[in-house]
User: Fold this.
Amino acid sequence: MNQREPSPSWSSQDHLRSDQQLRNLIMTSHICTRCGFQNQVTVWQCYQCGAALNSIDRYSVWRKNSVLIMTRQALLPDRCIKCNEPAERKLKRKLSWHHPAIYLLVFGGALFYVLLAIVMRKTATIEVGLCENHSAMRQRDIAFTWALGLRSEASSSRYSLSI
Assistant:
């Protein structure tokens, strides 16, 4: 009598209920890829380590048509942003933005808009990868722009009008 006998109400569906409960748990939580902490599905940031939680992929970076979409904490893969070759160089960029509705404040005054836009802005620092070819093209374009600017400055000072 010490052995437990299956109750008459037991059915083969009982193990499916536990699997379904497990599936519901997985569908209602995000597991942080950085620290492994199990977070609620409604949060977008890990409670333990603060990393971005996203069910789309590990890097929290995806594409919608020709637009790159990413969370603020996301890391871009070590690939060239232009051609997807392995990146040889990384460029660090600081991005800032604010809600588009703040542009309506321009009608109330430009100074008011600038102050509120500075206070309400959101920022992110990203590192964009460039392959050797695109990095060389970037360096060439920068040198060409500087040379053109210096040449135009030199020619304008030579032909300045005195009144």
Remarks:
- Residues 76-156 form one domain.
- The longest helix spans residues 132-158.
- The mean pLDDT is 78.
- The longest strand covers residues 89-97.
